[in-house]
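Hey team,

Filing this mostly as a record. A colleague (T.K.) asked me to run one chain through the structure pipeline before their review meeting, and I want the input and output archived in the tracker in case anyone asks later how it was produced. No errors, nothing strange. Just documentation.

Input sequence:
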Amino acid sequence: MREHAGRHYVIQYHYALPDNAWYVELSKAVPAPAEWASLPNARTHLPGVPFIVAVIPDEDPALEPTVHIHSDDEQHVVPYEIMRWFMEKVTEEIDRCRTTLS
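Output structure:
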């Protein structure tokens, strides 16, 4: 999670078996349930719905990574520093996947 100008953003990774690809997702974080406040080491925020998703194929080096922008008619303003942070994580994941293929 990363904070910028009072807003929290989250990057999550997951593997999509049908696509043979890693997904790197960027979302705005949402507050954790109030009941969690009393739990030790509880998270204060949780990932929201992803609005930018990088798809990184890891089985076929000929397949190119892609970036998908999702919108439900809601405008998402992404600060430059957050986009840069996200793309750094995407680049790291591409490098990791390409290294395992060679």
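Quick notes for T.K.: The chain has a mean pLDDT of 89. The chain has one helix and six strands.
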